[in-house]
Amino acid sequence: MAKSLQAALLWLLMSCAACSGACDGGAKSGGPPPAHGTSSPHEPLSPSDHVKSTMTFADANWADTVAAGQWAILVATIEEVAPGPPPEEEQIGGTLRLSVARDLTKPRWEGPPSVLVGYAQYASEILRARLGGQGWNAMDLKPGQMVLVAVPPVPKTTAEVVGPLGAVSVEKLASAADPFVAGVEGALAIEEEKDTAKRVDLLRAGAKSNLPFLPGYSHYAMGRLHRIPRKEAVALELSLLSDAGSAVRAQSTLERELWLDETPADPLNKQILGAFFGLLAGPDEALAKSTLTGLFNMLECEDEAATDYRAEAMKDVAISDKSAILGALKKLGSDPEVGDDARAVAGVLASLK
Amino acid sequence: MKRSVRLGITNGDLMLALTGEEVPPGAEPVEPREAMFWLRVAAPPAASSPVLHAISEIAEALGYPFNAATPFDDHAWVMATLESGFKDRRLRAFRLSNTQGGGKGPAPKPPKPPQPQPVKETVNPTIEPATLVVVVTKKAKDPASGKTEPYTHPKRQAITLKTDKSFDGTATFSCDKPDKVKFFTAKKDGTEIKIDGTANVFPPKKGPPWNPGASISSGVTIYVEGAGPSAALDDITLKLSLSGGSKTNGPDDKATVTSVEVTLDIHKSQPAAATAPALSQDDKVHAGRNLLVQNKAKQRHRAKLVIQQVKPAAFKGDLVLKAKNGHVDAFADEKTKVGEASALPFTVAADKIPAAGQVLWAEGASASDKMRDTGFVLGIKGVEDTADLVSATSVQLDLDICKRRKKKGKDPEVFSDEDKVKKGRYVHEQDAAKSHERAKLIVRKVKPDKFDGKIVLQALGAKVELYPDEDPAAAGGVIASPHEIDLKTEKNEEKVFWVQGKTVSGALFDSGYFLHLKDDPVGNSDVVMMTVVKLEITAKVPTTPSARGTFAVAAPRASHDFKSSSNAKKFADNAPTTLVQSTADIALEVKTTPAVPMPIEWSVEDNPGGKKEPKVTKKAKVTEATLATKAVGGFSIVAAAGDDGDAPVRWNIVLVGLTFKSSKVTRNQTNFTYRAGPWWSVSSGAFNVADPTVCAMHTSLKATFDAGGNAALDTYIDKVHAGIVNVLESTTAQSSYPAGRRERERILSPKPAANPVIAPATPGVDIGYPILDRGGAAGTRATGGSTIYLSSTRSVPPTGKKRTVETCDSPAVGFSTAHPGGGNVTANTGVNAFKIYLVAYSDDANFTYVAFGSGNWTADYSGTFTYPPPAGAAVWNRAASCGITGGAHLTAIKDGKPANTQRCEVRPPVYLDYIIDAR
């Protein structure tokens, strides 16, 4: 083991008793990471146990990592790879010494530029090849490789190196200028911005962006994270339906996150319905199918008895070119996957006076 | 009546005999005319009483009807009858001259006709009747007054004192045993006539002091009462003597009296009815004997009733024993016999009574209306109906035990008299939390209403305790046993107690309570039988087995086991087990202590209930049952001892159901990516559940969790989690190489060490399908709870009644670029066929899974490989068939079903345990 890693282990024993497996779980569940340096509610870890506990795949999705607002997200370079004992069956793992170049979440990172981070990978090359889309499995670990890594924040310390820490997310970077970094920075900017109008602007720009990660996060922020009021979110997503690059995510967000299934008379719901019916006759068949399934759910077509619900939901919904929509539905009616949905939705539409 | 009589006369006896009657030797017949003469001499109208009796008797033998008349009254007619007898030779007269004067002499000649001369008239005293029987009056000391007073009142017998002619002298009535009989002026009450030389003397021409106007000449009636028993028959002599006066006084007249005493005793109950002493005479009358009313089972003890020998022993007559009324009865035997009949009325000849007395056995027949209102009466047939008696109170004691209270506020049902003994009541040993019910014990109001004795409530053994309150948590302390109730000071009313199990019985019915009269032995009680039990329910919630059934790693335990010995209904005191609706049938077993066969009742109680009700099905072995959980809500699974649900223990459960709507399975075709390298791979997308557009398959649905609708149960909903399980239904994915070589995915048993497998001899058997598809670290695959779900599954929010459950999967295939046998990959074909399931589990049974929905989907990775010249890396060219297919929605599994029954695999090996077979 390199001297620097030995020193880091000593630092660990003196100052860091936490960040067990719960770190990974916390990140996955979207909750905050444990406070650094606090004691664990579990039995004290032996040094080797602790090292093991930091060895994660670091494959939590970046959306949760960014949204949690607790992790330090660092641009760093792998300086040293120190394989260790296998953290789990069928895995390999060890500790990396990273040199921190940037903290995207400043000032969360107050530690020194040198940090130890545990890693774990599938031992099988075959599995890594097959399942290695995320986290440490996605990369060959070697000095000089740049990464974007999310780790627990570290307070000020006089130590020259801290860790090992458990990473929740990691992404291979081609360089410091890798567009993934910009994408995450865009997401962090959305999180930082508190003014609704400005946030709407950031979200619109993010949704239309060509950067990795940012478009998906923008829709996620509008929908699941409720970063802007629903009214603004619905308006923005409806506008994005006409953007070819954003339409699929916009439709998904409107359907899953912004539709209120308890209030069929909601005016925004009616706007969504009107727009969705319009999509059925649109040129994008995949989008039309997805929208069709969404309409089937939103109109509760699985419940034949919910006629009142459907009537109220459809009341005053502005539908243009009904015949074209019915024609599209007729065509979709023969689709083996969504045919039932098409017939059900066509029935609802046909029943409208 | 006599057929021959002798009449004493001066010159020898005159004997009258019916014709044909034997006469003494030497008797000399007398001619009828002469006979009539001598008869008139011997029996003048004022003849002595014996003479008159004699002629009356012979006259009666001739057929003269007296019709209650006395010889005095009918003298003329009697004489006429005798004369007629002489005339028609039915009656003959003889002279017995040899009986007086020392031998046979000549027959007397008829006397000469009397010469007129002044004759001094003779006056004779008479006492009628000549013999009589009186019954001794019995006395006892009344504790209320302190006085000893008669408690029987035999009829006084009348005697008439008279002279046959007017008498002007002094008549004296006397008795030789005045301690045995008493004389009174009236049949009832009146004044006692003492034999004191004053009260018993009739002065000349005056009455006695107690009746100065009376005249002995006219006759005076006095009344005789028994005061003490005769030593022999007719051993008491009454005498009437005349003295003074102007006439010649006849001889004293006498009568004899027999004073008869009978005694009836009743015995106490302790130490045993047969050997207990008799009540004293005072007590048998004034305290009386308490007799329990006999019950249907004929268990009440009888009391010994003794008719003592009569005094005087020579008395001949029949004694008759009767019940005072219908509240008591008596039998020949102490122990009841089938078909036995009442011994009453019981008649026994006085001279047949054994020395130890005639024994009968008394019991209560019906409850008295008041204290000492019943008893037994001993009489002398034809003489006295009530010669002695014993008092009794027929007491109805009832001790009842109740069944469990079935409904709050409704009185518990009472065990029948038969069941309270034969079936008995079970109570549960009380626990520290005081969760176990007490049994209601009722001491019924004692009959008669004014019963003023003491009763005792006494425990059998020390395994039960008595309390004043039903609620075990109430402050009322234990009531010591035996518990005495003095109804002289306490109000006679229904008294309620509550029985609690203290320690477990060693055998069935070794506990209980007795209710008895304090004077009675415990054995003469009304009884309730009890058993203190301890029941413990064990519920075995089966862990979900492999759906495939072969080559599976078994769950670490066969079942999640839960135990309960508590009867607490409140979840705060007896925490419920939270389970998912339609969990596989649960094996229930109750362990009983004592470990002896006893009836066990299984039931389900709403607690507070919900939709439908879980169903308990009893097994042949009564301690076992099966619970079907196709229901939602809060329930108590109750095991109880006995046929009536005694001593219940409950295993509380909350069953949480799950429905879903708006399920959407998104299948994205545009996320396929190829990675080159020694191992090429084609991935169908990313694993970002937050962004459905990057996943190959993204599923979301809106789940509603239901604990039956009661808000109090909602908190338990959070113990149930739902997620998406993905299983591999089949894989045909393979990579093709020149010369017909190929690589393919296989999941073998045993798993080969080498990967890829190239050695032809490497054994392996395909484990079959379905196979759980679960990623992540090896140690996190199917280790309980959510570890069967696709790794990216999440629930938003993680708890609550309404949650969005979503998952993302983007499977991939990967094979060698260069086959170990030679040649580079040329194409890949085949699909992974998957099925996803919406599966729920509870934190309390985290290896037990229930499926609520399912949907099929496939991933087709087909493509061809080209190698751009001159020696470029392999390039994958997506085939038209490549893509993700499947239904747009999940299909609901109504009410859920155990996951394995729906082919939802929840046990390892997992798909990631595959190897590449390059052979």
Strand content of chain A: 5-15%
- Tell me which oligomeric state these chains represent: heterodimer
Largest sheet of chain B: 9 strands, mixed
Task: Give the total of beta strands of chain B.
Answer: 63
Amount of beta strand of chain B: 35-45%
Q: Which of globular, elongated, flat, extended, rod-shaped describes the shape of chain A?
A: elongated
Given helix and strand content, the structural type of chain A is alpha+beta
Question: Span between N and C termini of chain B?
Answer: 144 Å
Task: Indicate the topology.
The complex is a heterodimer of chains A (353) and B (919).
Chain A (H helix, E strand, L loop, with lengths): L2 H13 L6 H8 L17 H7 L8 H7 L3 E13 L6 E13 L10 E9 L2 H7 L14 E6 L9 E5 L3 E5 L5 H14 L3 H13 L5 H9 L7 H11 L6 H12 L8 H14 L4 H14 L8 H8 L7 H11 L6 H13 L2
Parallel strand pairs in A: 3-5
Antiparallel strand pairs in A: 1-2, 1-4, 2-3, 4-6
Helix pairs in contact in A: 4-6, 6-7, 6-8, 7-8, 7-9, 8-10, 9-10, 10-12, 11-12, 12-15, 14-15
Chain B lengths: L3 E4 L5 E6 L9 E3 L1 H11 L6 H13 L13 H13 L3 E6 L25 E2 L1 E4 L2 E5 L3 E3 L6 E3 L6 E7 L6 E6 L5 E4 L16 E2 L17 E7 L9 E8 L4 E2 L3 E8 L3 E3 L14 H6 L2 E4 L10 E5 L10 E6 L4 E4 L14 E4 L8 E7 L9 E7 L3 E12 L3 E3 L17 H4 L2 E4 L10 E5 L10 E7 L3 E4 L15 E4 L8 E7 L9 E7 L8 E17 L16 E6 L12 E4 L5 E8 L6 E12 L3 E4 L5 E5 L3 E10 L4 E22 L5 E3 L3 E5 L13 E10 L7 H4 L2 E12 L2 E3 L5 E5 L1 E2 L15 E2 L4 E3 L20 E3 L5 E8 L2 E5 L10 E3 L1 E12 L2 E16 L2 E4 L8 E4 L4 E4 L4 E8 L16 E3 L2
Parallel strand pairs in B: 5-16, 7-17, 19-26, 28-35, 37-43
Antiparallel strand pairs in B: 1-2, 2-4, 3-4, 6-10, 8-9, 10-14, 11-13, 11-15, 12-14, 15-17, 18-20, 20-24, 21-23, 21-25, 22-24, 25-26, 27-29, 29-33, 30-32, 30-34, 31-33, 34-35, 35-36, 35-38, 38-41, 39-42, 40-41, 42-43, 43-46, 44-45, 45-55, 46-54, 47-52, 47-57, 48-49, 48-56, 49-63, 50-51, 53-54, 56-59, ...
Helix pairs in contact in B: 1-3, 2-3
